[in-house]
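Side project, low priority. Logging it here so it doesn't get lost.
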Amino acid sequence: MITTDLAAAVDAIAAALNDRQPRWALRPESPADRAFVDALYASTRWEELSVLPWPDEAKRAFLHDQSRLQGEHYRQHYPGAALHLLEHDGAAVGRIYLHVMPGEFRLMDIALLPQWRGQGHGGRVLRALQQVATAQRRRISLHVEPNNPAQRLYARLGFERGEQRGVYQYLSWLPPVLS
């Protein structure tokens, strides 16, 4: 069950996406979306597997398993999270997974299909989340791999680096009211 605070964030993100370019929607992910979620996950990891001498079929099978395991992890460790797909003109083009905790939004994942990256959509999503976090007096935290190109976007939006947690860099953003 999504809380009122989390629902406000999802609504703000949808409004921000539609502000410049109508025809966007966010909707809860369903089991019927498994193939899309797997393909989206694979699109975010394919390049790093390019150095492996595996056949493409083996890479796809590995990424399918990793996507499934990631989904299981998120559902087990983030009960009540908003696991939403981003749609444009009714077609899924990305996802945002968001969890709310006392004083914090955890951005579990945000991803767009390759053809939708680099066009400002992710920035609009994050700025909308920052506005809601400010209104609710919450910080935003996330984990990101050091080689992820989104690091530049996070830095532009004021996210600060925290400690290294395994292979991930911990980032957080504090609204001005909490700084």
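Brief comment: The mean pLDDT is 93.
Revisit when time allows.
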